[in-house]
Amino acid sequence: xxTKVKIDTLRKLMKDRGWDAAVISGGDPHSDEYVPERxxxxxxxxxxxxxxxxxxxxxxxxxxxxxGRYFIQASKELEGSGIEIHKTRIPGAIGIPEWLGMEASxxxxxxxxxxxxxxxxxxxxxxxxxxxPHGGSIDDAPDFITEIWHDRPEYPQAGAGILADKYAGRTxxxxxxxxxxxxxEAGCGAxxxxxxxxxxxxxxxxxxxxxxxxxxxxxxVVTENRCMLFTESCKFSGNDLETLCxxxxxxLPYDSIDHEIVLRAKEGGxxxxxxxxxxxxxxxNILQSFGHExxxxxxxxxxxxxxxxxxxxxxxxxxxxxxxxxALTKFFIWLNGQMKLVKKGKTLISEADAAEKLNELxxxxxxxxxxxxxxxxxxxxAALPHYSAIKGKCSYLEPKGLYLVDSGGQYPYGTTDITRxxxxxxxxxxxxxxxxxxxxxxxxxxxxxxxxxxxxxxxDALARNPLWQHRLDFGHGTGxxxxxxxxxxxxxxxxxxxxxxxxxxxxxxxxxxxxxxxxGEYGIRHENLLLxxxxxxxxxxxxxxxxxxxxxxxxxxxxxxxxxxxxxxxxLNRYNSMVYSKLHSFLDKDxxxxxxxxxxxx
Amino acid sequence: xxTKVKIDTLRKLMKDRGWDAAVISGGDPHSDEYVPERxxxxxxxxxxxxxxxxxxxxxxxxxxxxxGRYFIQASKELEGSGIEIHKTRIPGAIGIPEWLGMEASxxxxxxxxxxxxxxxxxxxxxxxxxxxPHGGSIDDAPDFITEIWHDRPEYPQAGAGILADKYAGRTxxxxxxxxxxxxxEAGCGAxxxxxxxxxxxxxxxxxxxxxxxxxxxxxxVVTENRCMLFTESCKFSGNDLETLCxxxxxxLPYDSIDHEIVLRAKEGGxxxxxxxxxxxxxxxNILQSFGHExxxxxxxxxxxxxxxxxxxxxxxxxxxxxxxxxALTKFFIWLNGQMKLVKKGKTLISEADAAEKLNELxxxxxxxxxxxxxxxxxxxxAALPHYSAIKGKCSYLEPKGLYLVDSGGQYPYGTTDITRxxxxxxxxxxxxxxxxxxxxxxxxxxxxxxxxxxxxxxxDALARNPLWQHRLDFGHGTGxxxxxxxxxxxxxxxxxxxxxxxxxxxxxxxxxxxxxxxxGEYGIRHENLLLxxxxxxxxxxxxxxxxxxxxxxxxxxxxxxxxxxxxxxxxLNRYNSMVYSKLHSFLDKDxxxxxxxxxxxx
Lengths: 602, 602
Known about the structure:
The structure is a homodimer. By secondary structure, chain A is an alpha+beta fold. Helix content of chain A is 36%, strand content 20%. Chain A is built from 18 helices and 28 strands. In chain A, strand 3, helix 3 (71-77) and strand 4 (84-87) form a beta-alpha-beta unit. The radius of gyration of chain A is 25 Å and the shape is globular. At the A-B interface, strand 21, helix 16 and strand 27 of A face strand 21, helix 16 and strand 27 of B. Chains A, B: This is Aminopeptidase P family N-terminal domain-containing protein. Chains A, B: Keywords: Aminopeptidase, Hydrolase, Metal-binding, Protease.
């Protein structure tokens, strides 16, 4: 079926159901960053492969709403499909709720079909807010797309297992007891959890249902004396099931969550939910079963508790960084050797080859998986915000200019995320200046000391200021939280220009990754992970600082030394020296010599 | 009457009116920073002279709610009064709304008497939110305090006048036409304004009803074709009345605003108000007269428009800074001479004497008034957050250590605010270090370049970072907006650690005033005003920067040069050189020589 036929089929379904419009979102029931194939209805319907966007179809119009990252890609992929692009995040943009509001104003009793499992409740309520003044309404139809998407993939079926206490540092019983305290503080008798990483962290379980993120497709309900995990028990081994059972975890079928909500409601008490992440279908069920007065919609306390790593988790994250450092060092040595061959015309190395090699080396140091798809970008490709090197279609590395590699690993004991920008040969004066300015920003944040209560937004400018002084900037956040053997992107803290209402707390691990992207020329990003630590107390307050927990040398051959302050030079030399002392015993003689040279003070 | 007797009298009044509690706020009907005597009921009732706090009296309790600035002062002033202190802005603090909520839960039909003129609507609604679930209610009783405060002062009666277009740069007709556009955009037929500085700015009028702030006690209603100013017409000269009349400004009695709201409501259309500043009495009247559906409670557009100065206003602000520079230079020369005499034991100079001298010199350069009460603080007094030197009770200056003077003037064409910290003789190593760190912070902000859309909160850390690196900080904002021949503190922009949702825009003038306060030892603050300007456009965005618009030398004798970067030294030398070149022609030969020496590069 081509897109036009699919849309016609969808319109027939709409007609049968009495809908004036249908929303096809790109989301899954758990607000995952990486959406399993089963829920990629947007891609199936339209052919658009971007990671953000929603489709609305009426009888007279079909539109894809997406943001600036995808304007060019979408216009290529949607050519001839009859789907029009609606640009979001631009001045004067009209979002889906407003657009549907206008449509609803034209026809009394306007009815919109939505798969409530694939839209979070806050987004659905925004639509309702816009259509209800005109008498419009939403019809929640879970999985309606299955009627027309005949070869729709099944639920992900990966196995799952227990994360040992020696890695988790805190037992599931301890975590559940903490959560029960929070549920009771909120005056509730139960809590429904639907965020997969919250569930995985609370129960010390890890799965493989989501790409890169070691998560298990599930819901969870916690009451004063019960803990129900809604998933398929066959995903676990018998031993793991026994362990979970001993800890009082009941496993119920994934699909029985709706029924359980109805049962819960009959038992009395209030239900705690987080409408920011909960899908609209379950939200609707809860509201109907419990009634407005018995639902407490509040920010889940789990993300903050999860973001503050315990000692064992920190130890694991540091060990992962060490293993990563070994893999990356070996990678850069390999790359260096390959570039010599390239120079002699004896081989060709593509961006995808390099990524593959790095992945291989990382696995040989114990990584179970990548923590996200490696960005391996040479020259002007590194200036593209979402570059992905595809074998056979990507660039070959040449012995000149800058190569950017942003990658990370999932180790049994922790998760990494690191970016290095490496000269493959001579670099221009401007490349050197920019390389140094970005480095200044990264170091400035790493060196920062700040009072308790400081949010990431408060210190974001420290990383940007060296660039700003040259009227340069980068269009992404400076830092995101990193999970422990979990999602490489996690909240609630972030270091960003827009306001993030969460302080940076001791134990949090956040990335420090300023960059600079010169279109058509080159891209630079330096990224380390920062562990927030206490830094003393005095009459001015309680102080916090960062410890860098990434152990991979920073290339100094492109550093423009006079642009660095004395403190920045000291930091850089100490950092590289620390890296050498941590890694050298894991390297052979030649590798050691190679690294020693690169870690020499400037 | 002593406080106890006054409270007994109040309780009698409460009984007569059937109230269970009465709230005595410290506010006036216009949310003014400096409250006229007529509305200082809190001071009259309790004897507490602080600038922040509210009193609640029930039959069993009398309490003053105030914050950390006043805990010590309040406990002294309230001794023996029977009024207890409730601490606010501390962890676990119970505010007035919550406290009244608890009281209301104990008695059905709990009734609270409030002078709605003295409480802004948002605060009153917060109380209602807390008491209404228990069946409690508010009784709005305007001016009820007059019944027991027999010698209550009258309304302020100062004269008012027109600010000439040559100073305002934009006529009142232009401003009103702009405002009418905004009212219409909001779908309203009229707007009620109650903020005195919004009214003064819109109509290009200035008054003298409020200390330091050249404002006129008034309300204002703007409709599509009428502009009504509610004040006493006898405050204006005949000429000014004629001018206002020609521009279509109708003057009605201050007290007739209530009646006018009722008339307005009968004419139909919606009313635009800003509940953040509007008092609860008028808010209640509007709600009753218009009905909920016909009231649009929204942030007033005036403060932002007012904060962005036009070319004429900027010219005036710069001229004021120049005159201020002359006054301050003469002041520091005088101080220098006096300290020589002090050293020889030939004279004594108190902090109050110094403030008086500065005020005198400022008047001789054309200032009409101070823009706030000068802070003249020597040695350890400068470490007190709200120090006020009282003649006969304050310290004498000695020829050693640091003297801090924070002051400003109201000139016909502009308003100033400046702080200098000056060594009166030898200073310690630590004083020099701290003097330099604070200076680094001030310079760092002055040198900042940032993209369009940046809020003050985003760049606040640039001023704090040099201190933070030494685990030092200051407990106040880094910068506030400054009005043009208006309030020295104005919004909506601010440079603060907490989030302020307003970008710094070209034309805004904001203070840059980091500080450091070492209790019992010394205090340091450096303050200049910064004009935000455009700084070019490129592929990374539209850039903004600051121009310093304060022209008074910065003493370099206490600078620890090696703590400053090359760029900071360059800024300092250029700044002092610029100050000299601007001021020298206004000084006599000796003064010039004195200043030239102090402006020499380091």
